[in-house]
Amino acid sequence: MMEPSSEMVTSFSSSRLSQFTNRPFVISSTSSKVPYNDQTWNFLDALCTSTLPVMSPETRYDPSLVKPAATTDSVRLYSDSLDLSIDDEYSKTIRATELSAFPLPRHIESKLGKRSILDKLRAQPLVSSSDSALVLSNSTLSKDELTNSALVPLLGNTPKHGHNHKKWKLNKVLLGHTGQVTSVAFDPFNKYFATGSADSTIKIWNLAASRLDLTLTGHIMAVRGIVVSDRHPYMFTCSEDKTVKCWDLEKNAIIRDYHGHLSSVYSIDVHPTLDLIVTGGRDSSVRVWDIRTKTAVYTFPGHKSSVNQVRARATNPQVISSSMDSTVKTWDLIAGKCDKTLTYHSKSVRSFALGAENEQLITASSDGIKKFQLPDCSYLQNVEFFETNKIEHGNTIINTLATNADGVMFGGCDNGKFAFWDWQSGEIFQQGTNIAVPGSLEGEKGILCSQFDHSGLRLITGNVDKSIKIWGQMEIA
């Protein structure tokens, strides 16, 4: 496929680019004595630096700042039984008077010099008087029910190369959205996660308690992507309403809107070391935005159809995108142009994943799953595909891939099929078929989004049947 010429790449005029690059970016670096030593970096200089400063997990946040969630907030909760009888004690609507969204790192909180999150929330009116969530659990099922239950995955293949990954099981099902659940993201502390939905809302959930804490409204159409920054107290969302929004998680409010996409925005990611976000959408473009000025730093129009997913990396290639045009492209932020185009697929690439410390790339399409080595994008191997019959093969649309640090990759499909892979060997060690929750249609068993938490021990999936499913590892490998 022909690469886009430099003329095709839309960027700043020289005067605007000069104005942008002369404005310093503040990037925090680590020090054994001073955890947060702010250094001033020019944008292009920082991009050209071979090793960008990255805050280590040990100095990035102080867990002692985490405030316990209020115990008075309640949601509709299904007890551990399948008769779905509701306990009157929990048949209350959520009260959002004592909860906080995501705790702030100490260096951000001290610089802001403002009241605590709890103080602000106490002074605010109720977020919603009708928010509710349902929790299903499979802990009381019998052994036979566990084997056949819609809430438990089918156990799959025995690995061939000796990897010893534990099997995964479904622990809980959360209900609260009134539309398909299209996106999920975790906060840096691994205490909360956010979900976006076709109902145009974003919901904040307490991970440990499986509790709905907050519902945020602001988009007027389906929310398609969510990402939470680990360097700022910000969450970013994108939507079919053509907008990208920045949410202040201290205020639980929108503080910035980014306008420029000509149609629905399908995917979003935040750069790990620079104050940039990357978006892709139905207008076939990949756009790079300055978080603070809301300016489009680059607009890359190289794809010929909708952009399904974008990811940002600290090292080259710094932006990766996949598209309905069956290609995967890498983008050079220094040169402001497409670096490489992968044309190994013949059908749309809905999803891809980064693994092996972000040095390898796996792309997924109906025609197969393939692994590449970064940064040169050299082809490594084919990855084992789902077990399908002749009719299903070639029509299995893989909507989502997710990976954890233990070398496990999860994939979910439009037809409800899912699988867990060993990243290194590319072999499936467990697979099954998702079942829609009671009251849903058979065709609503598709899986739309997935993400492992920061520990890698829990997996969240968002589904066509409007449910959120929490998966965990089984005790025995």
TrEMBL record:
Belongs to the WD repeat PRL1/PRL2 family. One of its GO terms (biological process) is mRNA splicing, via spliceosome. This is Pre-mRNA-splicing factor PRP46. Associated with the spliceosome. Its main location: nucleus. Involved in pre-mRNA splicing and required for cell cycle progression at G2/M. PANTHER family: PLEIOTROPIC REGULATOR 1 (PTHR19923:SF0), WD40 REPEAT PROTEINPRL1/PRL2-RELATED (PTHR19923). SMART domains: WD40. It is found in: Nucleus. It comes from Ogataea philodendri. InterPro entries: Prp46/PLRG1-like (IPR045241), WD40/YVTN_repeat-like_dom_sf (IPR015943), WD40_PAC1 (IPR020472), WD40_repeat_CS (IPR019775), WD40_repeat_dom_sf (IPR036322), WD40_rpt (IPR001680). Signal peptide: none annotated. The keyword Oxidoreductase does not apply. WD repeats lie at residues 174-215, 216-257, 258-299, 300-341. Keywords: mRNA processing, mRNA splicing, Nucleus, Repeat, Spliceosome, WD repeat. GO terms for cellular component: catalytic step 2 spliceosome; precatalytic spliceosome; Prp19 complex. It comes from the Eukaryota.
